[in-house]
Amino acid sequence: MTAILKHASHCRWKIPFRAFYTCTYPTSSHRNKETSLATPFQRVSCHKQTDFHAHSLWTRSLSGIKLRTIRKRLSSLSAAAIVNSAPSSMKPYLRLMRLDKPIGTWLLFLPCTWSIGLAADPGHLPDMSMLALFGTGALLMRGAGCTINDMWDKDFDRKVVRTATRPIASGEISRFKALQFLGGQLSLALCVLLCLNYYSIFLGAASLMLVVTYPILKRITYWPQLMLGLTFNWGALLGWSAVMGSCDWSICLPLYFSGVMWTLIYDTIYAHQDKEDDIRVGIKSTALRFGEQTKPWLSGFSVAMVAGLILAGLNAQQTLPYYAAVSAVGLHLTRQISSLDINKSEDCWKKFASNRNLGLILFLGIVISNLMKKQEDRPIEN
């Protein structure tokens, strides 16, 4: 071995020590000889092979570092990271309005996007300023709804493991301070509402009674999710009226109905996380009402939702991309319900959160369908 290394060190075509072991030759009988007396061509080939291998490893390492960096930056921009980096005096209020859990804001905002998208002029994108306005309103009204809910459910939340750490239940925020915070949120939401036309202002103000009533119904009926659906999908009416100045009920009502069915699906799944605690503290829900028959009920709601979306699309004269998106929604619901395990909280949360993607798929279909309208009308205009 020493002789071979000395020979390699004095050789005109020097090779790195790491390349020494990567050279391969036809027969094992001449391996030692050919290793020490390899031709320049063989040594150069071995060197290139080693460099290529090292370059591949280096490239993969850099790619891994870049991916980790990107993931770290994205995680630092998440809602939970923003709340955690906020001043300590603000954190309880941000958690009270569920800013660290934006899925609820998405589910409130998405029916607004559907309606605004359907109301856009043929061949045009939805009004971006209107989408931004409704996004701000959804953030504020979802926060106000969570504040009202936590004020009503303070005593119940203390008895449930998942909700015991909420700011009001844990004593971080008093009811009086929560009431002041609620007033601030509603005041800002009113400023957003006043940016709309008079028809929409009155229509939006009418939804406040639904927001206040929902927490009470959990103590009275097994169908509080129905009231939540009526509340969360009010934007399906409001978005159209904000763009058009009034509601076209042939489009808005089927869209609103579909949204209500959608809420019954995802919030029933959500309620299965807490069903044992709900029984203990006396809270009612559709999860307790349906029990082991949850999947047939959810399947029925899914059929009703898809039917409502088809009717709304026909009345709005939507094109093929819209119906493709509705088909994707139907497939998403089918997979979601068929694979649901109502006895596993983690699976229920995963299925619940996946509904944001469902809403975005439908919105994308509406936008593309609306852009296609202009292309279809061009031959007629010419």
Automatic annotation (TrEMBL):
<keyword id="KW-0496">Mitochondrion</keyword>
<keyword id="KW-0414">Isoprene biosynthesis</keyword>
<comment type="pathway">
    <text>Cofactor biosynthesis; ubiquinone biosynthesis.</text>
</comment>
<dbReference type="InterPro" id="IPR006370">
    <property type="entry name" value="HB_polyprenyltransferase-like"/>
</dbReference>
<keyword id="KW-1133">Transmembrane helix</keyword>
<feature type="transmembrane region" description="Helical">
    <location>
        <begin position="297"/>
        <end position="314"/>
    </location>
</feature>
<dbReference type="InterPro" id="IPR030470">
    <property type="entry name" value="UbiA_prenylTrfase_CS"/>
</dbReference>
<keyword id="KW-0808">Transferase</keyword>
<dbReference type="GO" id="GO:0008412">
    <property type="term" value="F:4-hydroxybenzoate polyprenyltransferase activity"/>
</dbReference>
<dbReference type="InterPro" id="IPR044878">
    <property type="entry name" value="UbiA_sf"/>
</dbReference>
<comment type="function">
    <text>Catalyzes the prenylation of para-hydroxybenzoate (PHB) with an all-trans polyprenyl group. Mediates the second step in the final reaction sequence of coenzyme Q (CoQ) biosynthesis, which is the condensation of the polyisoprenoid side chain with PHB, generating the first membrane-bound Q intermediate.</text>
</comment>
<feature type="transmembrane region" description="Helical">
    <location>
        <begin position="186"/>
        <end position="217"/>
    </location>
</feature>
<dbReference type="Pfam" id="PF01040">
    <property type="entry name" value="UbiA"/>
</dbReference>
<dbReference type="GO" id="GO:0006744">
    <property type="term" value="P:ubiquinone biosynthetic process"/>
</dbReference>
<keyword id="KW-0812">Transmembrane</keyword>
<comment type="similarity">
    <text>Belongs to the UbiA prenyltransferase family.</text>
</comment>
<protein>
    <recommendedName>
        <fullName>4-hydroxybenzoate polyprenyltransferase, mitochondrial</fullName>
        <ecNumber>2.5.1.39</ecNumber>
    </recommendedName>
</protein>
<keyword id="KW-0831">Ubiquinone biosynthesis</keyword>
<keyword id="KW-0999">Mitochondrion inner membrane</keyword>
<dbReference type="GO" id="GO:0008299">
    <property type="term" value="P:isoprenoid biosynthetic process"/>
</dbReference>
<feature type="transmembrane region" description="Helical">
    <location>
        <begin position="103"/>
        <end position="120"/>
    </location>
</feature>
<dbReference type="GO" id="GO:0005743">
    <property type="term" value="C:mitochondrial inner membrane"/>
</dbReference>
<feature type="transmembrane region" description="Helical">
    <location>
        <begin position="132"/>
        <end position="152"/>
    </location>
</feature>
<keyword id="KW-0472">Membrane</keyword>
<dbReference type="InterPro" id="IPR000537">
    <property type="entry name" value="UbiA_prenyltransferase"/>
</dbReference>
<dbReference type="InterPro" id="IPR039653">
    <property type="entry name" value="Prenyltransferase"/>
</dbReference>
